[in-house]
Amino acid sequence: MKLVASKTSPYARKIRVLLAEKQLAFEFVEESAWNAGTTVPRYNPLNKVPVLVTDDGTCLYDSGVIAEYLDPLGAPCFIPSAGIERARVRRDEALGDGIADAGLAIFLERKREAARQDPAWIARQRSKVEAGIASLAKELGGKAYLRGDSLSLGDVACACALLWLEFRLPEFTWRTDYAALGRWIERLESRPSFATTRPAA
Question: Does pTM surpass 0.90?
């Protein structure tokens, strides 16, 4: 397998964490969709990472599809097989990805020249991030992980989103605003899968 991805993408980190947890061998091809001459469109016509290239040459995207493909390939499993348990984990994943989506929208808008930035758009995305973090904290409560005692895909997606915020938009002080999230993220950061996928400053 080959993973085409950026080391700073929260969606790519989600997949890299899963691969590390499952100890699946893969070739990492570091690539940014934003660079001139990027090769990402060779793998994904939408020019987005991550892309997983399977051994038979099939290109899989986006991260939710890749996670679905990887889950049965090795232990442990991070997505329940069926029913409401599966739906809850996929919803948790959607929450994490949605927080990342809104955060990235802010980050990209701020890259525009000041006169062209839309403060109302930034405020709208900021409200999504804040509501998402509050919902995550409520869902976690006092549990070790979102679904109880074991790590799920939802934990991975949400953690990667929040850690990306901390990396790119540190004004979101979720780690100190929500003590339970702070304890949860420390638990995850102690895992080799998170430690080895931390983006460089």
Answer: yes
